[in-house]
Each structure stands twice: as structure tokens, then as C-alpha cells.
Here is the input.
Amino acid sequence: MNKTSLVFSALLAGAVCAAPQAAAQTIARSTPIAAIGDGAGGFNAWFGDGFTAAESGRDFTELFTFSVSGLPFDAAASVTSSFLNSPLGKDLDIVALSLYRYDPATLAVIGPVVAGIDGTGFGDEAPDSWSLAAYDLPTGAYAVRVDGRVLGSGGGSFGADLAVSPVPEVPAFALLLAGLAAGALARRRGQRRAMEKPPCG
Here is the structure.
């Protein structure tokens, strides 16, 4: 068993207690996220997965892992399924999107799990759409988790994105606010002096 499989197994066991019969039918995968730096201290990433006709009717749980170091950060993620108009209706039924921190040494989930919001439209042909946002998260190892079921007779796929941006340090943010306040005060004093100045002539 490779390291990725071991990490996935431990994370999955720590995050969810599934029934033994359901676990046998679940497609379980874990993939490190390939991040692209944004030039401002954060990063963006695009990821997803596809399923074959042989996997139709099975549940899936996928983990996409990443690490953040340095400053606390904000994160936003979204996932959308495909729609190929297969005989069973929609191709994938995404049932959950979540984000959580874990301990790389013990693989235990740390702190609360950030749950996504289901933004799927109405109708049989609406692709699933989920999103989440989390703010002021501590640095560490994280996983974006996507849960669902393959419905399409030809399989199906989903695509996801993740944006991470650092939260400014408090001293730098305080200096910025102080500078803005000082500028506003100076402008106000200048306006007051202009009003108090006697007219020429």
C-alpha cells in the first residue's frame, strides 16, 4: 500500500464513520493539490476527477490535500459536476463538500470541519454546484473533501477550484488603518482651515 493510500485511509477513518457495507462500495481516492502561486503570497488550484461506466452506481469520497505555512489564511473552494444527459438523469450526485485541517503525524482531524453550501439549481438536468469559504485559518495540512455518487451509465466527472490568500499581519494591518485615519484627519483639518481663512481683498 503506498503512502497516499495510507494517508487517505487514515484521514477517511478520522473524518467519517461509514457503515461496513457502504465502505466496500465506496470509491476512495486521495490526491495532493498542485498549487499555482498567485504572486501575492497565496495560491490557486484546479482539480477534479472522472469516473467510468464500470463505476456507475458507486459512492465516492475524494480527498485533495495541501499545506499552508507562514501567515493565517482565508480559503474558498467550489465544485461542479458534469451533465451528459445519460439515461439515468444527471451523471454525478455530489452530496457534500468540506474543508478541514489534519495532523500530518497522527492524521487526526484538527478542529472543526468547514461544510460547503449546496448551490445546485432545480430540475433533473441541473449539474451539482457546491461552494465553501473559511476565514483566518491557522497554517497546517488541509484536505478538501468531495463526497457523492456516480449515477451516469457512462460515468461522470467533476471539477473543483481552490483559492488561498494570506491574512495580513495585525501590525501591518494596524499601520494601514492608522495611515488611513491620519490621512482623513489631515484632509479634514485642511478643509476646516480653508473655511476659516478670510476672503481675499
